Every structure is written in structure tokens, then in C-alpha cells.
Amino acid sequence: MTKTIDITELALRDAHQSLLATRMALDDMLPACADIDQAGYWSVECWGGATFDACIRFLNEDPWERLRTFRTMLPNSRLQMLLRGQNLLGYRHYEDGVVDRFVDKAAENGMDVFRVFDALNDIRNIRHSVQAVRRNGKHAQGTICYTVSPLHTTETFVEMAERLVELGCDSICLKDMAALLKPQAAYDVVKGIKTRCGDGVRVHVHTHATTGVTLVSLMKAIEAGADCVDTAISSMSLGPGHNPTESLVEMLDGTGYQAKLNKACLHRIKNHFAAVRPRYQAFMSNIIGVETDIFDSQIPGGMISNMESQLKQQKAEDRLEEVFIEVPRVREDAGFPPLVTPSSQIVGTQAVFNVLMGRYKVMSSEFADLMLGYYGKAPGERDPEVMAMAEAQAHKPAIEQRPADLLKPEWDALQTAATALPGCNGSQEDVLTYAMFPQVAAGFFGKRDQGPIYLGRDPQATDKPSAAGTDSTSVRSPVTYDVKLNGRSHRVSVTPINP
Length: 499
Description:
By secondary structure, this protein is an alpha/beta fold. It has helices at 14-20, 33-38, 51-59, 63-73, 96-108, 124-135, 154-166, 183-197, 214-224, 245-251, 263-276, 293-297, 301-313, 320-333, 343-357, 365-372, 384-394, 411-419, 428-436, 438-447, and strands spanning 3-4, 6-9, 43-48, 79-83, 113-116, 139-145, 171-175, 202-206, 228-231, 257-258, 479-485, 488-494.
């Protein structure tokens, strides 16, 4: 008997985020929507991740209007988004009331499937988002961030899946941000989840193509019982992006599995994005082939490009190899966090500081918070000496509780601040936009009525990124770190890589 494998299409979100630095305008996606809607996908990922940031920072688009437009243009499709748990779509934790309002509004505006993850795989940072999704009657997909370390085993991933099922998640996603998921590991983890949690638990697998092995990994995951895999239409695939949808369909021929997608629709979708993609040449990733070094370094490509940029600013390009050696040491000191936003840029930046100034002579406030538990519980034990240095710098103790439990209600203050800005329309959506990115939102509200900026049609666009990341990757949005050196405070801006 032939088993049908479901497919989630990534062309409208992670594909262009990974390949084109999230710069694709909504108008360049809409002509493909009719075919996407009729192609037979299980879901269409079209929102979340870095797209919210990119809309207001670069494209002068209202992200909520983008969501509403997709809902109109894809009436037969499940719309899917990527949500950073208690971080929502920002880079800090939000108190539970803000999380509730964000999920409520996303659901109200048309979102169906919420893929919820936490950078540390801390279930406590996922729980409230999942509860909010379920309260809205939407599909809550609990996510396991896949990584490799002495602490991350098949058993630890399976145990996390069990906890996500107990939390009430409607499905489980194994999310490989850096193309580290090798074929046998894919089989073992999916098989373990199905065996432990039951065949009735849906398992989805997301991976990138960067290392060149993950199309095989998807096949092994399917053989182990995966119900759905993520792919991107071929003209928006490979490199730091994802495996091609059409290749996955053809690979299943004769295997006892099939993906029931309309090939005529796929052909038209491919042709559309093949015509659109060259318009964004200025933002294309420089990673166009295979990067197997990621298996040894555990450093995604976008993280490498960020560290290269930091070293160039200090005229220390020749010390990149030292940083490569230092990153795993910093990661071990911090308890082996997965390298995904925001932990990836926090660990990478600290490694650069260690090489340039001596180990932990300078510590970013974000790294201190990571060490002290203010981002959540790390997978492993953190180095006690480094924790002591973090406490001394931050002037606050390490914590064991869920970080959001320390936050006071903030909605009223956010609403007051947002509605005072010129151009804010007073809606909860606008307040949430302000909550995610207050400085960027202030500028966006003031110029929103000028309409979208089409970077793909602007020959003067020159802010080309050095490379797009494989950390599920990459809108280039500066994050500011506060560091102290010789008693003086300094602010350092670092470009993050975003899932």
C-alpha cells in the first residue's frame, strides 16, 4: 500500500529568507499564490521568522497586511508561521499577556499552523505559546531544534518530543537549522519519536540543503515514519536554502511513498520564482554550493559571515581560525546551547571577544544573561567560573525559574508608547509591531502610507549581505550589545542570523 507524504512549501518564507536575505516583496509572491493554493501542499509557510522584521525594516510593508493578503490569496491552504516561543518574533522574552495577544491576533488575521520553538529547547519557553495557540483552536506544532553535541542524543530528542506531546502539541517538528541532520540520525530520531509517542503523533521534518546530504536525510525520515517534510520549489532551493520540492516528489517514485502534488502547478510556481529571483541579485547568498565543513565546526554559514564582519571591523581577519576554535569552547561553557537565534549570535560574538581581548575579559550583557539563565535553561551544566564572572558583571544572580516569570505585565505601557507615535493606527496589531521592534516600528509607522519599497526592482540597492546563513537564516538586523572594558561601557552592533 502506498503511503502519502505531506509537504510544506517554504517558498513564501524560509526559502527567500535563506537565499535572498528576506527581501522579497509581497507583490513578487502573489502571482504564484493561485498555483500554490491548488498544488496540494499540507501547509504553506508564509509568515514569522525574520519576515516580520524585514517587512518594517526594509520593505515598508505592514506584516499584518501581508498575512491578511496571504489569507485572501490562499483560501484553500493551511497558512503556517515560525514563532520563537516566549520571544515571539523579537529578540527578548515577552510576558505572557503579550504572548496571548500576539497569538490571538495572528490567528484572527488568518494563521492556521504555529511552529513554536525555543533556542535552548527549554520547554518552559514554549508552553505558554502552545496554550495560546490551542485556545484559539489552531494547530500547535511543538519544535525540537536539532543540534549535535555530547549532550544531544537520540534519547534526549525523543524525550523532548514526549514532553511536547504531553504539553498538548498537535504535531512535532524536528527542525534542523544548519543542515546537520545526517540520514541515519534522521531515521533514528523520527523512529524513536514514533515508537515512544505512537504512530498517531504527526512528525514533520525541516532541514536545509547546505551540507549536501539532507535530501537523503528526508528520505530516511520518511522511511522511519515522518508524516510531512519541508521543501522549497526548485527555483528557490539549495545552497543555504532547502531541498527542492520537485526532487522530493520524484525521489519517492517506486518507493512505496508518494507526494500527491500537482506537477503542472509546481512547474508554473518554479517558472514564476525563476523569473523573480534574479531581481534580488544584490541580496543573494554567496553560498551557492555545498559546505560540509559545518559538520566539523558546528558553525552555520551565516554565523561565520557575522564573525568575519566583526573581525574585519577590528582589522583582525587573520584570526578567524582562532575564533573557529573558540566557538565550541564558548558553547561548552554555556552548556551546549543549539546555535540558533538568539544563542548563535550571542555565542559567536563572545567567541570573537575572547580571541581579541582574552577569554571573558570582555563579556556582552547578552552572554552574561545566557550564562545566568535569563534566556532559559541550557541543555547542560554551565561553567561555574564563567557564571561567577557573569554574575559580577551583570550585578544579578543566576536564576532557575522560567525567565518570563520575572516579567511584569507590560501591555498597557506598550500601548501607551505605541499610540503616541505618529502614524500608529491604535490597533492591537500596531501595538504588537511596536512591541517586537520598537525603534524600527517608530520609523515604519511614520512612512507606512508611502507604500512598499520594491528592492527587487531598485538597481540602486547595494546593501548586499556577505552571505546568507544556514542558521535558518538571514535578515541582517543589527543587535546592540553592551560590553565593559577597563571599567568603561561600550556599545557594539552585531548583525544577527534569524530563523
